[in-house]
Structure formats: C-alpha cells, structure tokens
C-alpha cells in the first residue's frame, strides 16, 4: 500500500502494512541452550578439578615412595658401614633352610 515505508523490509511501518514473510515465532529453546552451556562449563570445571587432584595425589605418592627408598638406602649404607651385610645373611638363611651352608653335615 502507499502508506507503507518499504525502504527496509524489516522495518515496514504504516497503515495496512503486512510483511511478505512473517517473522519466525520466538524460539523457546534459548533457555535450554543457556542451561546446557552453563552445565557444560560447570562439568568441565569439575573435571579439571578432579584431574588436578588426581595428579597431585600421584605426585605425592611418588614422592613418598622416593623418600622411603632413600631411607632404605641410607639404612643399608649405615649397616654396611658397621660391617653388616643383610644380603649375605639372607643368603645364609636360605642355605641353612635347604640343609646346606657352613653348619650343615654331609652324609
């Protein structure tokens, strides 16, 4: 009609104006999209926190194992310095258990 302003189709105004293609109905899924995105971000943050805690636990366990190994090594060094060799004693125990070794009788 002559009362319409057709310069911009999205801004059609005036008496008796109608759009050729009606605008689409508003989308109700916007709320769902926002919730899904927020849930994904929160889930990602929880996953990263759990991954970080797991890495820390592994590092602490490795450090504890390393400290225990160092203590055992220091203990063995101290025993060797005193002239005690735990390996030879263990070997002697095995030989005595089998019936051989220094104090065993031969038939």
Give the SSE map.
Elements: H1 30-81, H2 86-98
Tell me about this structure.
The chain has 107 residues and is mainly alpha-helical. The longest helix has 52 residues.
Helix content: 55-70%
Low-confidence stretches: none
Total number of beta strands: 0
The 3D shape can be described as: rod-shaped
Order of helices and strands: HH
Rg from C-alpha positions?
41 Å
**Secondary-structure-derived class:** mainly alpha
Share in β-strands? under 5%
Mean pLDDT: 76
Sheet having the most strands: none
Ends: how far apart? 129 Å
Instruction: Count up the helices.
Output: 2
Keywords:
single chain, mainly alpha, 107 residues
In short:
With 107 residues, the protein is mainly α.
């Amino acid at each position: 009609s002559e009362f319409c302003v057709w310069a911009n189709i999205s801004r059609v105004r005036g008496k008796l104006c109608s759009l050729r293609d009606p605008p689409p109905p508003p989308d109700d899924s916007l709320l769902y999209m926002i919730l899904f995105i927020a849930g994904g971000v929160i889930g990602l943050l929880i996953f990263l926190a759990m991954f970080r805690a797991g890495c820390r636990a592994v590092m602490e366990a490795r450090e504890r194992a390393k400290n225990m190994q160092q203590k055992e090594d220091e203990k063995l060094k101290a025993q060797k310095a005193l002239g005690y060799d735990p390996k030879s004693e263990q070997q002697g125990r095995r030989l005595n258990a089998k019936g051989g070794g220094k104090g065993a009788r031969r038939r």
